[in-house]
Each structure stands twice: as C-alpha cells, then as structure tokens.
Write a structure and sequence with these properties.
about 130 residues; mainly alpha; Four Helix Bundle (Hemerythrin (Met), subunit A); elongated
Length: about 130
C-alpha cells in the first residue's frame, strides 16, 4: 500500500487502467468518482444527522464500493468500519451508536485527502 495519508493504492489504479484498456475510459471513471464523492459524503452526513438508517447504510455502502474500485483503501476501510457499526446498532437506532460523528469527521478528512491524491494522479497522466 502507498504511504500517502489517504491510503490510495497505485496498484489498484494501474489494474483498473489495464482492465478498462482505454485511457479515456480510465480518466472518465476517475473523474466520475471524484465528481460523485462529495455527494456520497453529503448523503452519508445527512443520513447520520437525521438518524436515518436506510440512507446512512446506502451511502456508506456506495462509498465503500466506489473507494475500493479506485484504490482509496483507507477510505474504503473507514467506510467498512462505519458499515459494521451501523449493522451492529440497536435496530436502526443510530443515535445510540457511539462515535458516529467522529467516524464521519474522519471519513470527511480522508475523503478530501483522497481527492487531492487522485486529482494529482489524473493530472500527472494528462
């Protein structure tokens, strides 16, 4: 794994590029990830703030899967831990799960770092 603070794995990005077998498709895939990441984070924020289990779980699953696809391993791991916390919570009562606000804040910070790293990677490849 890469030593950058966001934990973006360049091997995953390289594999994605090979699998897409098209530089334009690779750039488009990364741009779409970067474009949708703020919305995913905001949806997660709204779900947690509103103590809405369904919205929160949908948002965290979307975040986790999309991060895994681009190699944002640290962010994907944080999303997985949040998913596990949500699943372990008492019957969807999010307000009774300790540490959700802090988990979200940490996810937000790492998401910003991942955006910075991935945008730099895209710029390098242009």
């Amino acid at each position: 794994m890469n030593a950058d603070p966001a934990g973006v794995d360049p091997a995953v990005l390289a594999r994605l590029r090979r699998e897409l077998d098209d530089d334009e498709g690779w750039f488009l895939f990364l741009r779409n990830f970067l474009e949708h990441l703020p919305r995913r984070i905001d949806k997660l924020r709204r779900g947690l703030a509103g103590a809405d289990y369904e919205v929160s779980m949908d948002a965290v699953l979307s975040l986790k899967i999309s991060c895994q696809m681009v190699g944002a391993e640290r962010l994907a791991g944080m999303a997985l831990r949040l998913q596990q916390s949500l699943s372990a919570g008492p019957d969807g009562a999010l307000c009774e799960i300790p540490g959700l606000e802090q988990m979200f804040e940490e996810i937000s910070v790492v998401a910003g770092q991942a955006v910075f790293i991935l945008e730099a990677r895209v710029a390098q490849e242009l």
